[in-house]
Write a structure and sequence with these properties.
Chain A: It holds the Pfam family TctB. The complex is a heterodimer of chains A (167) and B (499). Chain A is mainly α. Chain A has 7 helices and no strands. Chain B has a two-stranded antiparallel ribbon. In chain B, a hairpin with a 6-residue loop joins β1 and β2. Chain B starts with a helix and ends with a helix. The chains are: A mainly alpha (167), B mainly alpha (499).
């Protein structure tokens, strides 16, 4: 019944929740509170933040009162976190500049590397295939307003003077 | 009879070639993701939402609904054939379904699942058509006081019926409510939690949030313990049930349908809870008790009927009250809002084509699923040979495009990345993220109704207990909470979930 992982996990969870609640409270503090008959924009958020802190505290205390040894959180997929989240952030940063096709190619390649079964032999065709398929589907067929190849890949973007002097 | 003219409208809407096509695409996609473990209806619907913005609202919702109930069919196929439930609602089907398959009765198990689901889907659809209009008529009389109490009841019930820690589920709800408040306060125009970011002024994008938590978070969890799937595809033959088998499934299908229909309506219910409850009941009451776990056909019939009935009837509170009972319904409400439809009791009268079209399309969709699934079983099983390491990069690619295309803004992509991290953190800390989404969708509505109720009562909080309807709803919420907290019933609840 006693899960050794549960204690440290719930303790950390409770503290994190309390910190989140405190963050919300801090941010909502400046908003007018109003009165219960005429609630200001701060009324509901402040009450919710206080409830969140209380619930987080209850979780942490309940964890402390349990008599079990410290445990770990189990395995954390650091490589996955880094590559997957990194790939998504890269897409956000680079899609409009690079264009959908090259950005997706990079995203899929990076994300695929997060798997322990990642091989260049499978990852490369997957990245090319998905970039081509999505470009066709979303830009050509569905007409979504995304650049296929973005301005970063043109020489004018990097050397505007050079291209204008050529004209 | 008004019902018949309404249904006629529904039939003409659902049978239009365009809507038939979207219904078909929906159930096909639903079956596919139902087959694939690691990709659920919540993430799929979130990914596809941006694609439906350009569609007519009726077609869009018909397709999204198809994904949800289609997934119930798909999940059972793999549960039976290879003991790998594609969806959480098919977990119990795998117990006896796979044993039947090992004994060479895979065809009979699949046919039982399909027939049971179809019967349950039909009954639940009729129930939806009959129960929704009177329920909405009652709800139309609700004032802000009743609505506030109804939402509180909904949130409490969704927590009470879910598995896991009660305290943690409440934390998720409150966190979701707070996140739902991000943006401009509609009454005062004040900026809340926006940190002067213009992109946050209209609120946090719920598509990006749900794709982050349910899409990316799930992928990160799956990457922890990756394994290769070895799939042995055997030929499935003998789809016909024997006379004796047919007799044995009638009772379980009827009971499963009843349980599923009731639990589906309740907040927090839906497909998964229904299937667990139906299996537990059969296991206790069946005359063939001894066979359970070794390939009892009842153990396939009851949960499969229940999960489909539950999936269908969970649309009732969503369509009549505008209150989501699970994460999928929360997304459907979000989809309606984006399409410019205000969810609530007015939907039936203001958007009759949408409401009746959806109901009829659900029945047609169920019919399509029966006709589709049995002949295409080989194809679905072959889909399982797609290894996860090729599948998840594709999911990430679709999530990126989906998040970007909601507002054509890269900001939403960053929101999704952030919530991917948060979602994974929640999984690691053993928080079930589903109530977060419910809270997120209900946050603004809850505040608005609380404000209005308190304004009308001039700040007197006792209105919530002096209005009779509101009082009843709050009492039900309190009873539900009391019931779970009481130790004896708590033990039973844990037992029910562990089974």
């Amino acid at each position: 019944m006693q899960d050794p992982i549960e204690k440290s996990r719930d303790l950390v969870g409770g503290v994190v929740v309390m910190a989140l609640g405190a963050g919300f409270l801090l941010s909502a503090r400046a908003l007018p509170f109003g009165s219960s008959g005429k609630m200001g924009p701060g009324y509901f958020p402040i009450i919710l933040s206080v409830i969140l802190i209380a619930l987080g505290g209850a979780l942490a205390i309940a964890a402390l009162r349990r008599s079990s040894s410290e445990g770990s959180f189990g395995h954390i997929a650091w490589r996955g976190v880094l590559l997957v989240v990194g790939a998504v952030i890269f897409f956000g940063l680079a899609m409009e500049g690079l264009g959908l096709a090259p950005a997706l190619f990079a995203v899929v390649l990076a994300a695929a590397a997060a798997s322990r079964y990642a091989r260049v032999r499978t990852g490369l065709p997957l990245a090319i295939g998905l970039a081509a398929f999505c470009s066709l589907l979303f830009i050509k067929a569905l007409g979504m307003p995304m650049p296929l190849v973005g301005p970063w890949l043109s020489t004018e973007f990097w050397w505007p003077a050079a291209s204008s002097s050529l004209q | 009879m008004e019902l018949f003219s309404d249904l006629a409208l529904g039939v003409s809407t659902a049978l239009s070639p365009f809507n038939l096509l979207y219904c078909f695409i929906g159930v096909l996609l639903g079956t596919a993701i139902g087959v694939l473990p690691g990709l659920g209806p919540v993430a799929t619907i979130a990914m596809l939402l941006p694609l439906t913005f350009g569609l007519d609202p009726v077609s869009a919702l018909i397709m999204l609904a198809g994904i949800y109930y289609g997934a119930q069919y798909g999940g059972s196929t793999t549960a039976i054939l290879i003991n790998l439930p594609g969806e959480s609602s098919s977990v119990v089907t795998a117990i006896d379904g796979y044993q039947m398959a090992k004994k060479g009765r895979a065809g009979a198990a699949l046919a039982t699942a399909a027939l049971g689901s179809f019967f349950a889907g039909t009954v639940a659809t009729i129930l939806l058509a009959l129960a929704a209009p009177p329920l909405a008529a009652v709800a139309l009389k609700f004032g802000p006081t009743e609505y506030f109490s109804l939402m509180v009841l909904g949130l409490v019930a969704s927590v009470a019926l879910a598995s896991g820690s009660l305290l943690k589920a409440f934390i998720m709800i409150v966190l979701g409510l707070l996140l739902g408040l991000v943006g401009t306060d509609i009454e005062s125009g004040a900026q809340r939690f926006t940190f002067d970011t213009p992109e946050l002024m209209d609120g946090m994008n719920f598509v990006a949030l749900s794709m982050g938590v349910f899409g990316l978070g799930e992928i990160l969890r799956n990457l922890e313990h990756e394994q290769t799937r070895s799939v042995m595809v055997k030929r499935v033959s003998g789809l016909m049930l024997s006379k004796e088998e047919f007799k044995r499934i009638i009772g379980p299908v009827l009971r499963g349908t009843t349980i599923g229909s009731v639990l589906g309506i309740l907040p927090g219910g839906g497909a998964m809870l229904s299937s667990f409850a139906a299996y537990a009941l059969e296991k206790k009451s069946s005359p063939n008790k001894a066979e359970f776990g070794q390939g009892a056909i009842e153990g396939v019939a009851a949960p499969e009927a229940a999960n489909n009935a539950g999936a269908q009837t969970s649309f009732i509170p969503m369509l009549t009250l505008g209150i989501p009972s699970n994460s999928v319904m929360a997304l459907m409400i979000g989809a309606m809002i984006i399409q410019g439809i205000t969810p609530g009791p007015n939907v039936i009268t203001d958007e009759p084509t949408l409401f009746w079209g959806m109901i009829v399309s659900m029945w047609i969709g169920n019919l399509m699923l029966v006709l589709l699934n049995l002949p295409l079983i080989g194809l679905w099983v072959r889909m399982l040979t797609i290894p996860y390491h090729l599948l998840f990069p594709a999911i990430i690619a679709f999530c990126c495009i989906g998040a970007y295309s909601v507002n054509n803004s890269t900001f939403d992509v960053f929101i999704m990345a952030t919530f991917g991290l948060i979602g994974y953190g929640l999984i690691k800390l053993d928080f079930e993220p589903a109530p977060l989404l419910l809270g997120f969708i209900l946050g603004p509505m809850l505040e608005e109704n609380l404000r209005r109720a308190m304004l009308l009562s001039r700040g007197d909080p006792t209105v919530f207990v002096t209005h009779p309807i509101s009082l009843v709803m709050l009492l039900v919420a309190v009873i539900m909470l009391a019931v779970i907290v009481l130790p004896s019933i708590r033990a039973k609840r844990e037992e029910a979930f562990s089974e």
